[in-house]
Amino acid sequence: MRRKNVGALLSALVFPGVGQYYLGRRRRALLFLVPAVVAAILYFNFALDEANAVADQLLSGKMAADPAAIEAQLAGAPTPVSVMLAEIVFVVCYVGSIVEALVVKPRG
Fold this sequence. Notes:
By secondary structure, the chain is mainly alpha-helical. Helices cover about 80% and strands about 0% of the residues. The protein has helices at about 5-15, 20, 25-60, 65-75, 80-105. Helix 1 packs antiparallel against helix 5 (about 80-105) and helix 3 (about 25-60) runs antiparallel to helix 5 (about 80-105). The longest helix has about 35 residues, at about 25-60. It is elongated, with a radius of gyration of 19 Å.
């Protein structure tokens, strides 16, 4: 398998930027890795806060332990703009790192 393909697979299956690191493009790896990590942390922090809020309502008895009620509670909650931007940044880093690993020719 060609190195470019391995780099693209690493970026696709492990994390954005890992393929660039494998290919020796350390600075480009950071351009994909850092924003993706920040976006992932922001997104998972939001998801954890939402899960804690639902768990607190379940444990206090304010919400029935019904999957439909839980889904309605989560569907009704507005998603902050920062979380939506984090999703977009992560997807752009994810797709960009795969495309960059496949398209850009190595130096040398």
